[in-house]
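STRUCTURE REQUEST FORM
Protein name: Centromere protein P
Source organism: Lates japonicus
Requested output: structure tokens
Priority: standard
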Amino acid sequence: MTLNHPELPGCVLFIHWSVEVSREGGVTPKINLLTKIPERALQLFPSQAVGGAAEAFHSLLRILGPEAALESVIRAVSLSQDT
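Status: completed
Returned output:
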């Protein structure tokens, strides 16, 4: 899944969701947030959390679970004012 905001061209968040199945039948979901942020944006806002978005997302996964973590990311980049 790819998320982007029209007012932030070049900034893209990719959500990569995969499932590993072991030979014993164990199922392990893996969800990663990958960012594509232009170097210029990182230079303009070095103290912002954009550079640590993947780590923050993994914290959300541990605290909220997968559904709520994904919903939080989608709301963060959406144009909707709904909360």
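Reviewer notes: Residues 53-64 form the longest helix (12 residues). Helices lie at 39-44, 53-64, 66-77.
Form closed.
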